[in-house]
Design goal:
Helix content is 75%, strand content 2%. The chain has a three-stranded mixed sheet. The chain is globular. It is mainly α. The protein has a single domain, classed as Rhodopsin 7-helix transmembrane proteins (Rhopdopsin 7-helix transmembrane proteins). Helix 2 packs antiparallel against helix 4, helix 4 packs antiparallel against helix 5 and helix 4 packs across helix 11. GO terms for molecular function: G protein-coupled receptor activity; olfactory receptor activity.
C-alpha cells in the first residue's frame, strides 16, 4: 500500500491550466454585456474585412499609404479573434485555459500591439514625405519600401513578443493559478508569479518606453513639421485633403497609444487592475471597431470605393 501511494504521488503532475477570472465577475448583467461585445466583434470583423477588400479591389487605392493601411485591419482582426471568442466563453463558465492557449494569447496580443505601434509610426513617415516632400515621394516611398515597412512591423512585434512570452511563462506560478483578467495578459500573469520579478518588470518598462514613448515622440515631432507644411499650402483643396488624412491618422494614434500609455506608463498602474481591464477592453473591443470608421468616414477615396462596391452588389442582383 505504501509503495502504491508513493508511486501515485510520484506520477502526479502540477496543473498547467490557468483560470481566467474574467471582467467584473460581480457584474449582474453578464448576458447583456456579452451580447454587446459579440455584436461589436461582428461589426469589427465586417468593417475591417470590408476595408481590406476595398483596398485590394480598387486600383485608385493601390498606393503606398493604403497598402500600409491595409495591415491595420489585418492586425485588428488578429487581435480581436485571439481574445474575444475566449472572453465570451469565459462569461458562460468556461474559464479554464491551457498553458499553450495562454501562451498563444500572450504572443499574438503582444505581437499585434507592438506591430501596430511600429506600423503607425512608419505611416506617419509616409504622410511626412507625401506632404513635406511630395516631388520625391515616388522615389522614397515605393512598393519595395512598403514591404520592408510591413515586414519590419510584423517581425519586430513577433520577436519582441516571443521573448516576453517565453520569459513570462517560465516563472513558477502560484496556485490556484487564477489570472485576474479576461485574457492572458503579461502584467496579469506576472501578478500570480511566486518569484521575485522586479528585474523583469524593469525590462517591461524599458520595452514600453521603446514601443510607446519613442514612436509617439517621433509621431508628434513629424506632425509639427507636417502642419507647418500644410499651413504653407496655397491650394485650399490640397490643404483640406492633407488635413483629412492627417486627422484620420491622429485619431488612430490616439486610439492605439492612449490605452497603452495608461496601462504601462502610468505610475501605480499595477494597483488599479479594474481600470487596466477597462482600458484593455477598450483597446481590444472598441479600438478595432472604431479604426475602419476613422479611415472611411473622413476619407473620400475610401467612401468612393465603398459606393462602387455597393453599386456592383446591387447591379448583380
Amino acid at each position: 500500500m505504501a509503495l502504491q501511494t508513493a508511486l501515485r504521488s510520484g506520477n502526479e503532475t502540477k496543473p498547467t491550466d490557468f483560470i481566467l477570472l474574467g471582467f467584473f465577475p460581480e457584474f449582474k448583467y453578464i448576458s447583456a454585456m456579452v451580447s454587446i461585445i459579440l455584436l461589436i466583434y461582428m461589426a469589427t470583423f465586417t468593417g475591417n474585412t470590408l476595408l481590406i477588400l476595398l483596398i485590394w479591389l480598387y486600383s485608385h487605392l493601390h498606393t503606398p499609404m493604403y497598402f500600409l493601411l491595409s495591415q491595420l485591419p489585418l492586425m485588428d482582426l488578429t487581435l480581436t479573434s485571439s481574445i474575444i471568442p475566449k472572453m465570451a466563453a469565459n462569461f458562460f463558465g468556461w474559464r479554464s485555459i491551457s498553458f499553450l492557449a495562454c501562451g498563444t494569447q500572450i504572443f499574438f496580443s503582444l505581437t499585434v500591439a507592438i506591430a501596430e505601434c511600429i506600423l503607425i509610426t512608419l505611416m506617419c513617415f509616409d504622410h511626412y514625405v507625401a506632404i513635406c516632400n511630395p516631388l520625391r515621394y515616388p522615389a522614397i516611398i515605393n512598393l519595395r519600401v512598403c514591404l520592408q515597412m510591413i515586414a519590419m512591423s510584423w517581425v519586430g512585434g513577433a520577436l519582441t513578443s516571443l521573448g516576453h512570452t517565453a520569459f513570462t511563462l517560465h516563472f513558477n506560478i502560484c496556485s490556484p493559478r487564477e489570472i485576474p483578467h479576461f485574457f492572458c495578459e503579461v502584467m496579469a500573469v506576472l501578478r500570480i508569479v511566486c518569484e521575485d520579478i522586479s528585474a523583469y518588470e524593469k525590462a517591461v518598462v524599458i520595452t514600453s518606453i521603446l514601443v510607446l514613448l519613442l514612436p509617439l515622440s517621433l509621431i508628434l515631432s513629424s506632425y509639427v513639421l507636417i502642419f507647418l507644411a500644410i499651413l504653407r499650402m496655397n491650394s485650399p483643396e490640397g490643404r483640406n485633403k492633407a488635413l483629412a488624412t492627417c486627422s484620420s491618422h491622429l485619431c488612430v494614434v490616439g486610439l492605439y497609444f492612449g490605452p497603452g500609455l495608461c496601462v504601462y506608463m502610468r505610475p501605480g498602474s499595477a494597483k488599479t487592475p479594474k481600470l487596466n481591464q477597462g482600458l484593455f477592453l477598450f483597446g481590444t473591443v472598441l479600438t478595432p471597431f472604431l479604426n475602419p470608421l476613422a479611415y472611411s468616414l473622413r476619407n473620400k477615396e475610401v467612401l468612393s470605393a465603398l459606393k462602387k462596391l455597393m453599386g456592383r452588389c446591387q447591379s448583380s442582383r
